[in-house]
Amino acid sequence: MTQRPLPRNRSASASRSPGTSRVVSPTNRPSWPQRLFYSISFKRRLWLTFVLLITVSLASVGTIAYLIAASEIQRTALQASRDTVNQSAQIVSERMKNIGTAVRALMFSDAFQDMMLDVQRGDRNGYYKWLSLLQPAFSQVKFNDAMIHSMLIATPIGDFYPTSNVRSAGVSFYESDLYAEFKTQGRGFWTSGHADPFFKDGERVVSLVAEGVLDVSDHMRTLDVFVVVNVRESDLVDLFMDSLSQGDKAYAFLDSSGGLVASATIDDAAYDFMNEPSFAERLTPAPSGDFFFRQDGDDYLVNFSRLPVKEEWMIVGVQSKAKLLAKLSGIKRATIAVVAGFVLLSLMIANRLTYVLLRPLFQLQRVMKRVEENDLDVRYESPYMDEVTQVGFRFNRMLEEIAQLIDDVKSREREKRRAEFKALTAQMDPHFFYNTLHTIHCKSVLGENEDVSEMILALSHMFQLSLSGGRERITLREELEHVGNYVAIQQKSYERLFRCRIEADPEALNCLVPKIMLQPLVENSILHGFSDRGEGGDVRVAAELGADSLLLTVEDNGSGFDPARVRERMTNPPEGKHGYALRNIAQRLQLFYGEDGAAFMLEHNESGGARITLRLPREEGGGREDAGENRAHVRD
């Protein structure tokens, strides 16, 4: 004999027996709010559900209405503030543009151009003449824009300015910060607010610095001449503040770094955060924009607009979000009052409503209590046609079918016993018994006493295992011994016809299986698969253990069969005993394990013969002390 054990499945575990109780994990237990909710009556749960539903619905509607109103007010305020700031930025930008235009007109005046010729020649003799001739031009520029406080034309031959302003002696433009800034930028620019260094009154001004040009021969020449126009800082602030009418907002005139262009424009100390770097970082390079800024736990709506004439400057508006939404406080109070009123109303009507809705259920409950007292003649009656009534009518139908179900159960038990009896008698076919005795007789006459002894012993073991003390299930080890005894007898009767290989996982030998399942399958292979040959047959019986199942396979290299036809014969059996063994096994599997507990599969194998596979639930019940003595083996 040769041994060929199958691979051992180390991950396999014993399946739970049908009688084992289910263990509930602590993580699956309901929480204490759930236990509290489940402990109260259904009527109270329904009542509580009504109250909660009405409360949540009203609160949701009120909250949504409040949020919509808040969003609309916020959007409207944001748009109004954006429009106001943009309008102010346009006004300031136009005014600054007009000042720039006036400066260009000054530089192209005859007096300025003639003065530039002396500058070009370096002639200082005409200084007082040009100082006098430029006064009308200065007056015209100041007349065109009343915000202009003073002007200064700095040239290498002397400074020119309106005589109405008192010049600060010893303060040269070419030594000032404005000149250094011009050399850095290389072009004209506007300055932020500062004290006027060139005139004695020291007025805080915003200055425009431009380079003077000489218009000769169709081209411009620069001669290190500069025109400085000083605009009163207070007048510039008043210009854009006059168009900003909202009293609950603060406005500022800032540059890109967040610094003030004109001082005293933040009229509320609460908005000092506009000077912080984190605030300046939110002022994007876009021409205009808006965002929310959070400071000290409060939110502020910020919008800004850059001046088209000088994009580094912008007008910024800031408004507290709390003040913006202050108008909604009345809506909030009204919403709370309405929700509270409807909750009180729901408390008054919910109790009566739950009683009306649950009346059919209470009636069904009374009927069920009478059934618990073994009164099976009671019936549910109700004038309603709701879902509870439909359940009651189905309960009536269930009562009517209980007797029939009891009869069906009894009938199934009788059929089960009859099927088991037929299975036991079918496995010990009288023809097999007679043929075995005839073979024993012939061999005894021929003096083959050793074969006779083996056949008698095998036949005795078959009887013993077939009876198995009245047990319905035996271990796989015993089932394979039964198959081995049967094969031993058949090999003595049909010498050289076939050989049988039995391969089993050692751990599978202790699993419980319905008795006499495999021997009829082996018999089917011998009698039908090898009916047209005299030798060379090969039967393989295999048992493989899975994680929760046991696979039993019987296959041969015989003439095979048509699986579809065999299944049809099993479903609609013809007269006689043909196909009875397979049908009997399938029925017994269904009796033992139900519709889906086991599988019975018919198919062809690689050699064209038949392969029958049984998949059973894994259930161990035998000992392991002799597992090593029952490893896979081959019978020849």
TrEMBL record:
Alphabetical list of Pfam families matching this protein: dCache_1, HAMP, HATPase_c, His_kinase
Localization terms from the record: Cell membrane
Q: Which SMART domains match?
A: HAMP, HATPase_c
The molecular function GO annotations come to: phosphorelay sensor kinase activity
The principal location of this protein is membrane
| Classification via PROSITE patterns | HAMP
Superkingdom field: Bacteria
The protein's name is Two-component system sensor histidine kinase YesM
